[in-house]
Write a structure and sequence with these properties.
By secondary structure, the protein is an alpha/beta fold. The protein is 31% helix and 16% strand.
Length: 494
C-alpha cells in the first residue's frame, strides 16, 4: 500500500474514533494530519509529494534549505544606527521632524505627549564596504559583521502594523498580533518533521544581554504550537546542568527503570487513544519517547569539549560562557549539524528609549563577533549551502528623539513603518541590498517588505508554498501568513 493510502486510512480511523465531545473540543477533523510529519515523512525533503487530506503536499517547491537559524533581536534594534545610513540628518540635528514626513503616524504613549519631535542623527560613523554588489554602508558598531557582507542579503524596507512590542513580536513569530496562533517553528515541525529523532525539530535559546538589565518579557507562545498538536511546540534549552526541565532521572531511578516505566505508561496511553481517539494522546506518547531519547542527545549536544580552539575563537571570548549569544550561536551550528529544523535565538535588551548610545554599543558587542563566527563556521563546514540564517527584530526605531536630546546621547521610540532585516545561506543571493527608505529613515520609498513576506520567503526556501500550507481549525483554513496577500521576496533569492 502506498504512503498516501496508509496515511488516509489512519485519518479515517481517527475520524471513526472521534467522540462527539472530542469533535467539538478540537473543532477540526484535520488534527490527525499532524501525524504526517512522523508517520509518512520523517524527512519531507527526502520523501517528496506526500499528500494529506488537508491538501498539504510536501515539498511544494524545490527546497533550497533543510533547516534554519533565526537570530531574533527582541526589543527592536535601531536600523539608522546600524545598517540604514542617513547622512543628511547630520545637518538637521535638533530640528523638528516635518509633518510631511510623519504624516500623522500613530505614536506610542511614550512620545505622544512630547511637545517636540527633534531629529537625532546617528552618532556613529558609517563606512561603505564592498559586498559584491553596489556596496553596503554599515555602522562602526559592527566591524566583524562587515567581513561577511558578501554572504548577506539586506531587506531595508521591512514593515509591520504593530507599534508595541508584544503584538509586534507575536505578529512576526506567529503571523498574527493576537495570541493563540502557531509559531513559525511549530509550522515547520508540523510540515517537515525532524531530521533527527533524538532531538526536537524546533529548539529555542534565550540569550543573556549586556545593556540595561530590564527588557521586554518573552512568552512561550512565541515558540508555541497554538492550534497545532502540542508535540510541535518549541523546546527551550536552559543554561545549567539541566538544559531541559525534568529531563534527568530522579535519584534512584535508573535508565532501565525509566524505560520500563515509559513502556507501561505508553500502553495505558495507547488504550486511551484507541478508546477516545484524541490525537493529543498520541502527542503525549511521542513527547515521552522524545524526552527519553533526549537524555543522551542533549548532554552530547551541549558538551563543547570536542570543539577546537580555532573554532571557539571564531565566536569570540564569550563562547565558553553558557547562556551568552556567542555560546548559543555555537550551539545553533551544532544543532544544524544534527538536523534540528529551526533553532531560534532570542537576544533581548534592544528597547533603547534612552541611553541608546551606551546600550546599543553593548548590544552590538554581544552579537557582532558571534554572528561573524556562525556564518563563517557554517560556510567552512559546507552547512551554509543548506542552512538559512535570518537576523532581525519586531520593528524599527524613530529618527526623532525620545526624551532629552544631546549630541552625545539620545533615545528612540518604536517605529513600525520601516526597519532592516537580513538573510544569509541556502538560496540567498549574497551582497544584495533590497528596499529603500527616505532620508529620514521614516517611510519606505522603494520595494516594501511586510513581515508576512518575510515568513513567506522563509517557508519558500524550505520548500513550502505559504498559500498551500494550511491547517483547518474552527472551520477556517489557517496559514502562517494569514489571509492577506503575502509575497516571496524574490529579489533576495539566488
Amino acid at each position: 500500500m502506498s504512503e498516501k493510502l496508509t496515511f488516509q486510512s489512519e485519518i479515517r480511523r481517527f475520524q471513526n474514533l472521534q467522540t462527539r465531545r472530542h469533535f467539538f473540543t478540537n473543532s477540526a477533523l484535520g488534527l490527525g494530519s499532524a501525524a504526517l510529519a512522523t508517520m509518512t515523512a520523517q524527512n519531507a525533503l527526502a520523501m517528496p509529494n506526500v499528500t494529506s487530506e488537508t491538501g498539504n503536499t510536501f515539498p511544494h517547491v524545490t527546497p533550497k534549505a533543510k533547516r534554519a537559524i533565526y537570530l531574533f533581536m527582541s526589543g527592536a534594534p535601531s536600523q539608522m544606527d546600524m545598517y540604514d545610513y542617513k547622512p543628511k540628518m547630520l545637518d538637521l540635528f535638533n530640528t523638528e521632524l516635518p509633518d510631511s514626513i510623519r504624516k500623522g503616524q500613530r505614536l506610542t504613549t511614550m512620545t505622544s505627549g512630547q511637545k517636540r519631535f527633534p531629529i537625532a542623527p546617528s552618532r556613529f560613523k558609517f563606512k561603505k564596504y564592498d559586498n559584491g554588489g553596489d556596496g553596503m554602508w554599515v555602522s562602526e558598531l559592527l566591524p566583524e559583521t562587515t567581513k561577511i557582507l558578501h554572504e548577506l542579503a539586506f531587506m531595508r524596507s521591512v514593515k509591520t502594523e504593530a507599534i508595541n512590542h508584544d503584538p509586534a513580536i507575536t505578529y512576526i513569530c506567529t503571523g498574527d498580533q493576537l495570541p493563540g496562533r502557531a509559531s513559525l517553528g511549530a509550522w515547520l515541525s508540523y510540515g517537515l518533521g525532524s531530521e533527527n529523532g533524538d532531538l526536537p525539530a524546533f529548539v529555542v535559546l534565550n540569550s543573556t544581554w549586556s545593556a540595561r538589565r530590564d527588557a521586554q518579557a518573552l512568552f512561550n507562545r512565541l515558540w508555541g504550537n497554538g492550534f497545532l498538536p502540542s508535540k510541535h511546540q518549541g523546546v527551550m534549552l536552559r543554561t545549567g546542568a539541566d538544559p531541559v526541565l525534568f529531563l534527568s532521572n530522579p535519584s534512584g531511578v535508573s535508565k532501565k527503570m525509566r524505560r520500563k516505566m515509559l513502556d507501561s505508561l505508553n500502553e495505558l496511553n495507547q488504550k486511551t487513544y484507541e478508546k477516545l481517539g484524541d490525537p493529543e494522546t498520541q502527542a503525549r506518547i511521542s513527547q515521552y519517547e522524545m524526552a527519553f531519547r533526549m537524555q543522551s542527545a542533549v548532554p552530547e549536544l551541549t558538551n563543547l569539549s570536542d570543539e577546537s580552539d580555532e573554532t571557539l575563537a571564531l565566536y569570540g571570548p564569550d563562547v565558553k560562557k553558557p547562556g551568552t549569544f556567542a555560546h548559543h550561536c555555537l550551539l545553533a551550528r551544532r544543532m544544524a549539524e544534527r538536523g534540528v529544523r529551526l533553532t531560534q535565538i532570542f537576544h533581548r535588551g534592544w528597547d533603547q528609549h534612552g541611553n541608546l548610545v551606551g546600550d546599543l554599543k553593548s548590544q552590538c558587542r554581544d552579537i557582532d563577533r558571534p554572528t561573524f563566527g556562525l556564518i563563517t563556521d557554517l560556510r567552512r563546514r559546507g552547512l551554509l549551502d543548506d542552512t538559512l540564517v535570518v537576523w532581525g527584530g519586531e520593528f524599527g526605531r524613530t529618527v526623532y528623539c525620545q526624551g532629552r536630546l544631546t549630541k552625545e546621547n539620545y533615545g528612540r521610540d518604536h517605529h513600525p513603518r520601516c526597519f532592516t532585516m537580513w538573510m544569509a545561506g541556502a538560496g540567498i543571493k549574497g551582497g544584495v541590498v533590497h528596499g529603500e527608505t527616505d532620508d529620514f529613515c521614516y517611510n519606505i520609498v522603494k520595494d516594501p517588505v511586510h513581515v508576512r513576506d518575510v515568513n513567506a520567503t522563509i517557508l519558500h526556501l524550505l520548500g513550502i508554498d505559504h498559500e498551500k500550507f494550511i491547517f483547518k481549525h474552527q472551520g477556517l483554513d489557517m496559514r502562517l501568513t494569514g489571509v492577506e496577500k503575502a509575497h516571496v521576496v524574490k529579489q533576495v533569492l539566488a
